[in-house]
Amino acid sequence: MVKKTGFLLLLLLSFVSLLSVEGELRPYRLIHADSLEAVKENGAYVSELRGNVHFFYGDTEFYTDTAHIYEEQKIVMMVGNVKIYDDTLSLQAKEVEYFRRQEKLKLNGSVFLEESHRDSTWRTFNAEKVEYLRDQRNFQAWDNVKMFDSREQINGSCGYLTYNGEKGFGFLRDKPELSLAQQDTITIKAQKIEYYDEYKKIVAIFEVETIFSEYLITSDFLIYFSEQEKAIYRGEPRLYSSLFDAEASEVTIFFVENALERAELQDSCLVTYKVTEEGSKENSVSSDDMEFIFTNKVISECRAHNNIISNYIQQEDPSKRQDYLENLSRGNELIMYMDEKGYIDHLNMQGNISGTYKFSE
């Protein structure tokens, strides 16, 4: 039931007048409210709508418990179960301020946004505070931010996120984290993570960690290309696993559906590795360039090229009638073949081979 019906005619007249004021392109249109009241403040009318409020501004649809519409300033204040639908975008929050002249939305409290795409994929955001500039397609979110992109299968979280749809650029900061899930889950952490063109390129900057189920890669800088399925690491990249550690000036990882396929190490390469489960990573190979081949998440082959120095240590093991042996060798090419668990099966060195053997006394 509409209260204070003496104001109803005045309100209707004011709504109609909005169609022609200042070349208005997005008129206000009330669909329903349990109660309606017009209050004059500083010479201008404020419409107070309460209970099951439903209205449009142009093609944008609004639902809320309570709305205060400042007609002269073109501002709407909404409180309680706010829902907004604008083309492919839907928004929910506890409180929303809508500045129609700037086409700006300020959302507070349990904010949820969902953007649907023509290919039936979608993107969602959760945060405590959001500002959205509709015309510029500029989006900012603060506090406990979480996002999901179904097209790229990406989950993210951070303290602050921004994205500009016109530029196709955004970034996460304040403990940002992205997880890419397909065959294997890849998690990226850094001080700042930038993303371009619908996550087709991701750049992580400073204190970068890339976490796989079996491996960890650290670096100062990462560029990930989703379409080429590769990641480039620079700034003292290091690769760690239970069986080996590796480092180089630059590391490039190649994937197939996010599963590790191959790694290329360039310049000042060094790998230290175990030869037995009980042993330590006391064996090493250094070279100008290296290549790792992965099979079922395990390195099945390692190829080293140019200026190779290999230090292979065999510890004494009386149960296997095995004596201590240390082999320091040099060459131009080295291939290390691993068994199905990733341990060295045998080695093959070629080109200008030289070296020394040291046995136990």
Give a description of the structure:
This protein has one helix and 26 strands. 26% of the residues are buried. The protein is mainly β. Residues 1-25 have low confidence and may be disordered. The protein is rod-shaped and about 100 Å long. The termini are far apart. The protein has a 26-stranded antiparallel beta sheet that branches.
Sum up the structure in keywords.
single chain, 1 helix, 361 residues
How many strands appear in the DSSP assignment?
Answer: 26
Shape: rod-shaped
Order of helices and strands: HEEEEEEEEEEEEEEEEEEEEEEEEEE
Low-confidence stretches: 1-25
Relative strand content: over 45%
Oligomer: single chain
Roughly what is the average pLDDT, rounded to an integer?
86
Q: What is the makeup of the main sheet?
A: 26 strands, antiparallel
Coarse structural class: mainly beta
Number of helices: 1
Span from first to last CA? 102 Å
- Provide the helix percentage: under 10%
Structure in a nutshell:
This protein is 3% helix and 66% strand.
